[in-house]
Amino acid sequence: MDIVAGMQSLGARDAQEDAFRIVPPPPVDRATDLLILLADGMGGHVGGEIASNLVLETFEHHCIAVSSTPHPRQRMTEAMEAANAALARRVRQEPGLAGMGSTLLSVIKLGDRLSWLSVGDSLLYLWRDGGLRRLNADHSVYGELTELVRAGQMTAQEAQSHPKRNALRSALIGDAISLVDCNAIQLRRGDVVVLASDGIETLSERQMVQVLSQQDRTGATQLCADFLNAVEAAGQPRQDNTTVVVYRYDPGRGNGASSNSLFALPEGAPTGLTRRWGLAIGVAVLAVLVMLWGVFSGPASVPAPPVVATDPGPDSRVIAGGHEADAAQETIIKGEDSARPPTGTEVSPDAVKDGAVPVAPAGRPQPGATDLDRSAPHDSPDAATGSDTTERPDNPGDPEAVEGAEGRDVEAGLRTSPRPMLRPGREGREPVFAAGAAGDLGRVVD
């Protein structure tokens, strides 16, 4: 049974603007790590395809051949900046490509740790113990509208009818990147990770749960095919490109990547439980040595160990789980999909059987979330540069200004881009790129 695979569908579009990469090729018997990339291009039939492929080509090259840091977050951030710079260079060389851009979703699995970097509205899901959970932040305007509804600043009906709900607040466009979600979780045996472009949103979470409920009896390739077949069966007349990558964490059978990968542990190195026990023993020995040093050398000032965040942070949205449901929470409908609950909704197999969709408790609004200008004409590219724009605080290191400021050195200096970005809407219009609040950054965990 294969544990990692990816597939694409053209949908009703003339060109494939999605791109994905699984790096390196995944022999299942020698795996210790994995790099997966997904991008959704924008900018017309030619520009979107060029943008997504250029972003992934540059990102992969920087990760594999350029960056020397062993830290996944820093490596991915450097690669993102290199990919963004490559877009800017390409537009300077070919001015006719001006306006192209791409989302970016990168995942590094190292041992039992899954780290990701996300810009845009491509989706990262975790299937665990029969529940579906969205991990990454939604950088579309819809994602911010969801937070405004939870904060009581907007009704679900207003969010549903908002003219710019499908616009992006952040993307790689060769300019400043306004929002970046970078985070990590610890994997458990049996976890299934799903990366997808927004074409998958034709399906409701209930339909996704139905597909994933079969995961224990099928491989990653078949799961990808089942997702795309379900999208095709929905028959949306303007169906977007859809890309799905599925990875199953099964440490007993290998972890899906070649042993010659840049991120691979040396052959014979301890992994999983063995590695954790080795770490615990090492820490215990170190503690004894420190105590002995204190006895024989007198009082000394020993610095406190660094605090390591272990939760996914406020921007990791719970999509499913079932045990913390609150059926009184309002539901937002996104685009044409009347069955899809908002980010924050829990969906379990039992809910599918009963036809009910319980909703998780309301979360707090994103720090610095901007109240969108509903009076601005939605068909004007200039509308995105009005009250929809909120710049990052001048002091990104101030914990009062940016949530989870620890470890944010790599994001210092990022600013909201005033440049509009056109993107085909799900109902045929051209919503504009709408810059959003810098507080959407997730807490960084290395």
TrEMBL record:
Residues 3-249 form the PPM-type phosphatase domain. Signal peptide: none annotated. SUPFAM superfamilies: PP2C-like. Gene3D superfamilies: PPM-type phosphatase domain (3.60.40.10). Residues 326-446 are annotated as: Disordered. It holds the Pfam family PP2C_2. InterPro entries: PPM-type-like_dom_sf, PPM-type_phosphatase-like_dom. It comes from the Bacteria. This is PPM-type phosphatase domain-containing protein. Residues 371-381 have a biased composition (Basic and acidic residues).
